[in-house]
Amino acid sequence: xxxxxxxxxxxxxxxxxxxxxxxxxxxxxxxxxxxxxxxxxxxxxxxxxxxxxxxxxxxxxxxxxxxxxxxxxxxxxxxxxxxxxxxxxxxxxxxxxxxxxxxxxxxxxxxxxxxxxxxxxxxxxxxxxxxxxxxxxxxxxxxxxxxxxxxxxxxxxxxxxxxxxxxxxxxxxxxxxxxxxxxxxxxxxxxxxxxxxxxxxxxxxxxxxxxxxxxxxxxxxxxxxxxxxxxxxxxxxxxxxxxxxxxxxxxxxxxxxxxxxxxxxxxxxxxxxxxxxxxxxxxxxxxxxxxxxxxxxxxxxxxxxxxxxxxxxxxxxxxxxxxxxxxxxxxxxxxxxxxxxxxxxxxxxxxxxxxxxxxxxxxxxxxxxxxxxxxxxxxxxxxxxxxxxxxxxxxxxxxxxxxxxxxxxxxxxxxxxxxxxxxx
Length: 424
Prior knowledge:
Layout (H helix, E strand, L loop, with lengths): L7 E10 L5 H10 L5 E2 L11 E2 L7 H6 L6 H11 L4 H16 L12 E6 L5 H13 L8 H4 L4 H10 L5 E4 L5 H14 L5 E6 L6 H9 L31 E9 H7 L5 E10 L9 H15 L8 E3 L6 H15 L7 E3 L2 H4 L6 H15 L1 E2 L14 E2 L5 E2 L4 E8 L3 E8 L2
Parallel strand pairs: 4-5, 4-6, 9-10, 9-14, 10-12
Antiparallel strand pairs: 1-7, 1-8, 2-3, 6-7, 8-15, 11-13, 14-15
Helix pairs in contact: 1-14, 4-7, 8-14, 11-12
């Protein structure tokens, strides 16, 4: 689908991650290169995987109390809906509240039926289910009646639509590691074509069960072999010692809005989504494809109406997987040719880990913040790049003005996606 209009912008962002529990805190960690990796707690001590970038010390009520800009009425409503909700729902509420506030939607908003919700993430309750299962076996009647709602991923749509009084379209999107980008692209299409004035895009925090984590490791996708005793060194996108992704946790939300709605509300603009593209490899396995990734990037650039030379920076998928990293860099060289060495490249997963379904939105927010603040964050642990001819940042952030950026997300099953963003 080619949508050539360029009138859709990001007006709000919200995030809770292992490196920051708000957009300002997250931005500060990007600039300073702070990572969120640590050893996994004793609840998963029998697993082969010992390293992750998890949300530590999380308290829904304490986080809610610290939030800026929400009224007492909104506070009470959020508390009522979220206090006994699963972890993933609580994180979604908090990140969505920050995005809603940043967009100025508490003060003035489009009609409720002109606002939609797209949730990025399915299978979001597996660890919640895993925790309930032992007590269910002891006494099935122990199970809360709310569980009948909570195991549906559409529960996030219900919760967020009730919290923000949203009556437009709502749906759940899934595409493995590309999920966040896919949700953003679908929201962009809905706003750009006039179906909605605004759309809340919610990336759901990864909370895999121990069996899920072990499954990733068994298929060879996860790292944690050489550096299990050095969690800070385990995630190494584009480094010769990379060995697989390290999972991370983050809930991330953005608000996309039409330029007409922005003008009516005099709302802020943090970046404009110029285009987004999705290309399938036709492959049910986990192996990536240079051709598929190349096609997604070329489609996104073509749909943006911009020449290749306008791309200043790429926020790479950069999962720290040897096959994945090599494939992506080969695809970047295939797309940009002799221009490739001029483009800044980094991988936010080197700081946050792979946040699974929310990864694309985490990296969209990281891209926007770097564009707005004039820097490119460090490539942590990039000591021996697998391609020395490309323009990676080193151990420290660099000052740089980025007018146009690309953010890549690729998922198992041959799902390739790319988004082009501009500052205006």
